[in-house]
Amino acid sequence: MLTHNPSDLSKRHIPLTGATNFRDLGGYMGHEGKPVKWRKIFRSDHLASLDENDLRQLKTLEIGRTFDFRGVTESQSQPYQWPGIQRHSLSIEPTVVQRLQAQHLSGKPLSAADALDAMQTTYRDFVKSDSHRFAELFDHMLTKPEPLLFHCTAGKDRTGLAAALILSALGVSEKDIWQDYLLTNQLYKRNSAGASNLSPDVLKIVWEVQASFLQSSLDVIQQDHGGMHNYLSQQLKLSPAALDKLRATYLALSLIHISEPTRQAEI
Length: 267
Description:
The chain is α/β, with parallel strands linked by helices. It has helices spanning 9-12, 52-60, 72-77, 96-105, 112-129, 131-143, 158-169, 174-182, 184-187, 200-206, 211-225, 228-235, 240-250; strands spanning 23-24, 41-44, 65-68, 86-89, 148-151. 47% of the residues lie in helices and 7% in strands. Helix 3 (72-77) links the parallel strand 3 (65-68) and strand 4.
């Protein structure tokens, strides 16, 4: 029987050859003390580099649908179409690297402060401009109970906010939500290609997560919508009945009823 230990990476992180930030959202304690079911909701970086062993792993996990937050150019430059997996595009166009590249080309020196500002602005824009995409993800979650995976390119920003929203809707504590968000800094390994003309101190900020990034989204949710509850119900269209259904689908009855992830799925 699985003891509640949300920090146990041996169960949460699933090592793959073609993705480094692939993990399970299960095990966190949710609404009314009911834990999130294991092997139901997964988050990841992009899936274009998976090999045959990785695909067998996804099949073992029974993942039959993915939700891709990458922008049009991103998904076209690193496409994937894997047998038995239905890909849904929930496109959110990236802006951080583009903003920084444009400033770099203009001749204005780029600083770490510029990168930090760009990241925080992007997270604010997720809430101001892209809430409909997160609403679509919830709609899919409510339509079918089968295991699902959502991702972007690095699985840290668009995916990180989506994970925070899902865990919030399931009643997971802020402490665990922050822990899950910051795990990217332990797990994600960036491909060395791309954006190499930016300085190392700028790239470090762009390719990591910081508390201030997610906090920028949460601040907009508070200021513009009056808090997470209102944002989920009014902006993401999660009625009380929808929240009840979401929790009934993705929360176990109690710790006694939560199954331990199979060892086969962790190999």
